[in-house]
Design brief:
283 residues
Length: 283
Amino acid sequence: MAIPSATLAAAPAVAATRHDRPRGHAYTAFFGRWASVWLALPFPLGLLLLWAVSSHFGWVAPQVLPSPQAVLATFIDLARSGELWDNLWISLLRVLAGFGVGVAGGLLLGVAMGLSPVFKDYVYPFFKAFSQVPVLGWLPLLMLLVGIDEALKIILIAKAALVPIAVNTYKGIENVPARYVEVARVLQFSRWQLLWRVVFPAALPPVWNGVRYGFTHAWLALVVVELLASSEGLGYMIVFGRQLFQLDVVIAAVAVVGVVGYLGDQLLARIEVILLGWRRSGF
């Protein structure tokens, strides 16, 4: 069969279009993947620029707001001396210990309230009252009971993490769609099969959200406790710098607190992708 000349003439253009499509698709995929980063950069870069300009022109006294160069130099000195890493390591050990206790306690309490209405009726009102008292509210009482050693810090961090984890676990189990349970009963699942194959997988997304919120609260509680009752850690560095009016140390420690907290949340987000990779996105 003879091929029309018009088709032959259009063939190179079609081939070129197909050849160019993967490259354009790769660019689109790259910028789409990093779109959140590009959108998040202007605001902090603008603040950094305003900070640098105000320091350069002396709009704010250096005793009140050190220049970015001074803060960077202080950060490098603290890192080289090892003081920053020692305090960071102590803070990480504290938050991991308290967060671990909070996760274990929050999961057990949330599962018990979600699976047993009787247990929930007995415990939930007290739990709500307990959760309304902030970390600072428990500090004086616990200082009298356990002193100001590591036990105080771990208890307060665990309390901060336990509350959102327990609430999200309980709500996640309670809000499992009834049709899932009906299908499991039609298939004659045992109680353990119902829990492990239906209830817990369906409740896992809100439970993991509670874990992420729990880590955020635990990290905030760590800084608060170290600000008030500690001689080591990042919070102590902030207090020490404020007492000596070394605001460059304060800003450097605050920056490390923010970066480490953000990286911890991103790590949990990556783990969430692995655990919940079976979910389908709605958009």
